[in-house]
Amino acid sequence: MKRSVSLAPGKAAALFIDLQEEHRRDKRYLVAGFDAIVANVRDLQKAARIGGIPAFHAAYVVDPAVRKLRPFHPVMANGTSAFSDKDSPFSAICPEVAPIGDEDLLIKSEASAFGSGQLSHKFTALGVEWVFIAGVWTEACIDATVKDAIGLGYRVILIKDACGSGSVAMHQTGILNLANRLYGGTVTDTKGACRMMAGETVEAWMVEGPVGLRFTYENAADLYDDL
Known about the structure:
about 20% strand; 8 strands; Rossmann fold; two-stranded antiparallel ribbon; alpha/beta
């Protein structure tokens, strides 16, 4: 259901996840509608910077010298990672949405941006209670990050049109699955998130009760649109 949501000053951070070149340049890992997602993220970053909300960035980079490859990790014939390899130019964050100034960039080698513990320590030091989350892929790194954020006690603002996956269906069902368990948090779009960052009160979707969105193949898109 929709409820009025407003944030206390100084209690929010914005987290932008895995907005890397491979998702628009590598045919194996293209994200549907990626250009629109990047444009929305640019708007969110601008609003965060104007509103004094700290912006954090995460990038998935595989470097066996730093961390041993996980069992069954896909590799190329030469032994390098099949995705997000440390030496691939496609692993770079898209320049339009890259960190600026002293914004933090977290290099990760697992799905969740909270996996190493670095991010939660920084959030604790800043007194963060609410976290705006955007990026890719919805059912993978976004899903893992959102669930870890909830487990750590943060209230997540999941920005549905600033996230994406390999297809619209993958993205929409990923958002719906998260919405069903987004306890303490909310789902909104870029415009709503920008208004929250500016200090406005916004009507945004919040979960009520367990697993309220019993979606089907037929109604998933409509339920997603209603969030």
